[in-house]
Write a structure and sequence with these properties.
The complex is a heterodimer. In chain A, strand 11 and strand 12 form a beta hairpin. The relative contact order of chain A is 0.18. Chain A is α/β, with parallel strands linked by helices. Helices cover 40% and strands 29% of the residues of chain A. In chain A, helix 6 packs parallel to helix 7. By secondary structure, chain B is an alpha/beta fold. Chain B folds into two domains: 271 residues, no CATH class; 55 residues, no CATH class. Chain B is 23% helix and 38% strand. In chain B, the strands form two sheets. In chain B, strands 2-1-5-7-9-11-13-15-17-19 form a ten-stranded mixed β-sheet, covered by helices on one side. In chain B, strands 3-4-6-8-10-12-14-16-18 form a nine-stranded mixed β-sheet. In chain B, helix 10 packs antiparallel against helix 11. Classes of the chains: A alpha/beta, B alpha/beta. Chains A and B meet through helix 2, strand 7 and helix 3 of A and helix 9 and helix 10 of B.
């Protein structure tokens, strides 16, 4: 589904990714862990198409297409979903309006009919309930005045509604207490399927107790220096990055 | 000057009587001060004298037209869901034949200034307008010299907010004419009303309109005033309001500019009382080479009044938006709260915004502040929306609409819907998919 080869990327002329390779097959859940500044968020933003990150070399193929040739919205319509580390607040745009616009925009790009309002409302209500999102929250402007946990739940709500094929979760556990973490993890786990893949970016092993990965990769200085199964995360928690880096 | 020649040519056709002396006084003012150029500070960004070259023809016209035709114009059709009371002022003349005030007949009085002056029946309260008080403003004096007609609207009792009075200013364009008008609005004590004021053209021809409004709001009256400029790309429109406000007045003035070639709304608002709450706000959507100026002076003369000027501009192409806000706080006006805020989104490299807040404070226990922001659309917001599949142009439209709707949100539902549809229309015309 996703194949990254020798990816090099920079921010403001500073090289962050230095030859990253990663292949994700349908149905797989991959976790990327790494110290601050390793390039985790850069990877997430490059995948989503954020202009501030410049790709200097390498290739990314997504569903056998050249991802780097696609606009931000085309990537989304093809199934790329980035759950933001810091979801953006947008005053004046009601959450419901935004959800409807995004669902219908993706359907339009894919050549599907727009959702009728009753069907849309029913769908949102059902998914929102599952995530403890109140109707009052949905009436508010997008992410404005939301707590950290509410913002993250709102990200997962969008994921449930848009049903992407690749979910990239950038530090989704940051700012969440244990209860909120469980709600978010339940949401993510409900989306696991043989056709859908996930890339979970995190600092801590904690999230991986709730969302169990098939593969764990350690990213240091813009490169994956070690890969393994879920036990690698436990090893990392026990030994710390320093020892893993020294051993690698 | 062409203006003096035009006056000489037409003066015998103009209503005289009680107005005669005020026309002469005003003419003398223009003779000694001239029509302001950009060298006059308050017209620095809007050179009035240059615009007078557009005023070629001072003829009146009596265009025959039905109200249905006016109502079908897109900018007026936007108000179809609003149950309004229409008052039509066309080509410089009040058209009672096209107006229908039957729904609120006992609550208001409506007269033509021209007819009243000709018949020497000017109401006492309007005598003010013709006294030779010190008048230092060009638009005031230009309209005093050359006016032919005006609306005298007196609101005697409260009118439900969902039954607004709609003043529709129409230029037929068929005469390529310049029109000068003087209007008076009077709200009785404790009354409330909602007013819509629309400016439209029926053709794409050049039009030139100068309107002067005297707005007298009595004790504890409440006015919601929504103004729409949806004129064509050749229209010059200058509106001045001289406001005289009494104790406890609540004013919520909201303007929306989506049209016109060159427009200026200016005001000189006098707080002659206490306990007032004045909200002056406006949204400007400007493109091509449009020039849209909002310039207001709020004069706090007595204690404990609040005024808030808030304007939002979205400027594209080579358009130029202007906000000049001035708050004067007299020595007796303690506990004044005067705020000004202008926020602008520039959509192109050649788009221009000029903001000039001014504070002139003589009292010592006041709260006054001003602020201005200028920028492009927020890149992070655009990225977030696009990352959810929303195309760039749609994302821009959503963000601009969100930015502007803060101004129109306080309108009641149906009126807000009308404003929204006008904004949506502008956005779809200027940001196509």
């Amino acid at each position: 589904m996703l194949e990254i080869k020798n990816l090099q990327a920079s921010v403001e002329d500073k090289m962050i990714l230095n030859g990253l390779n990663l292949t994700i097959n349908p149905g797989e859940v991959h976790a990327i862990m790494g110290p601050n500044g390793a390039g985790k968020s850069t990877l997430a933003n490059v995948l989503a198409g954020q202009d501030a990150y410049q790709v200097k070399g390498g290739q990314i193929s997504f569903h056998s297409e050249d991802l780097l040739e696609l606009s931000i919205e085309e990537r989304a319509a093809k199934g790329m979903f980035l759950s933001f580390q810091y979801p953006i607040e947008i005053p004046g745009v009601a959450t419901m309006t935004f959800l409807k616009e995004s669902m219908n925009a993706q359907r339009k790009i894919r050549g599907e009919d727009e959702l009728s309002t009753p069907n849309f409302m029913k769908l949102v209500k059902e998914k929102a309930q599952f995530l403890n999102i109140t109707p009052e929250m949905l009436r508010r402007p997008l992410n404005v005045g939301f707590s950290g946990g509410e913002k993250k739940r709102n990200e997962i709500l969008q994921m449930l509604l848009l049903e992407p094929s690749l979910c990239v979760l950038d530090e989704t556990d940051s700012g969440l207490d244990i209860d909120a973490l469980r709600v978010v993890a339940d949401g993510v786990n409900s989306l696991r399927s043989p056709k859908r893949s996930m890339l979970i970016i995190t600092h801590y092993q904690r999230l991986l107790d709730y969302i169990e990965p098939d593969f764990v990769h350690i990213l240091v200085d813009g490169k994956i220096i070690k890969s393994g199964d879920k036990t690698l995360a436990l090893e990392l928690e026990r030994d710390g990055y320093k020892n893993i880096i020294a051993a690698a | 000057m062409a203006f003096f020649a035009a006056y000489d040519r037409h003066k015998d056709e103009l209503p005289q009587g009680v107005a005669e002396q005020s026309r002469i006084d005003a003419l003398n003012w223009i003779k000694s001060n001239g029509i302001p150029t950009k060298r006059v500070e308050s017209y620095h960004y809007s050179d009035l004298r240059r615009k007078f070259s557009k005023a070629q023809n001072y003829q009146m016209s009596d265009t025959q037209i039905s109200f249905a035709e006016i109502k079908s114009r897109p900018s007026i059709a936007a108000f179809d869901h609003v149950n309004y009371v229409p008052i039509v002022f066309m080509d410089g003349k009040l058209r009672l034949d096209l107006s229908d005030i039957s729904k609120i007949e006992e609550k208001i009085s409506l007269h033509s200034l021209g007819a009243m002056v000709t018949a020497d029946r000017l109401p006492e309260c309007l005598a003010y307008d013709f006294k030779s008080a010190k008048r230092d403003n060009a638009v005031d004096n230009l309209t005093r010299v050359m006016w032919r007609d005006g609306i005298i609207l007196r609101i005697k009792q409260s009118i439900a907010s969902d039954l607004p009075i709609h003043l529709i200013f129409v230029s037929t364009g068929k005469t390529d004419a310049a029109h000068f008008s003087r209007h008076s609005l009077l709200l009785a004590a404790n009354s409330s009303a909602t007013l819509i004021e629309s400016h439209i053209n029926l053709t794409n021809d050049v039009s030139f309109n100068l309107h002067h409004f005297t707005s007298m709001l009595s004790e504890n009256s409440e006015l919601t005033h929504f103004t729409l400029n949806s004129e064509n790309k050749n229209a010059v429109n200058i509106c001045r309001t001289h406001g005289i406000y009494s104790d406890g007045v609540k004013l919520n003035s909201i303007s929306l500019a989506v049209g016109g070639a060159w427009s200026r709304r200016e005001g000189d608002l006098i707080c002659n009382g206490s306990g007032m709450d004045l909200k002056l706000s406006g949204a400007v959507l400007a493109s091509a080479e449009q020039h849209v100026d909002n310039s207001y002076v709020v004069h706090h003369k007595l204690p404990e009044n609040t005024s808030f000027q808030r304007f939002k501009n979205v400027v594209d192409d080579k358009a130029h938006a202007i906000f000049q806000g001035k708050v004067i706080v007299s020595i007796d006006a303690q506990k004044t709260d005067g705020q000004q805020m202008a926020q602008t989104i520039l959509l192109s490299d050649d788009a221009e915004i000029s903001c000039k807040p001014e504070l002139e404070i003589y009292a010592d226990d006041v709260e006054c502040a001003h602020g201005a922001t200028v920028g492009a659309l927020d890149e992070d917001m655009l990225f977030y929306l696009r990352a959810r599949g929303i195309p760039l142009k749609t994302a821009q439209r959503l963000l601009i609409h969100a930015f502007i709707s803060e101004i129109t949100d306080p309108l009641f539902d149906n009126l807000k819907q009308a404003a929204d549809s006008l904004i949506t229309k502008w956005l779809s015309q200027h940001l196509d998919n």
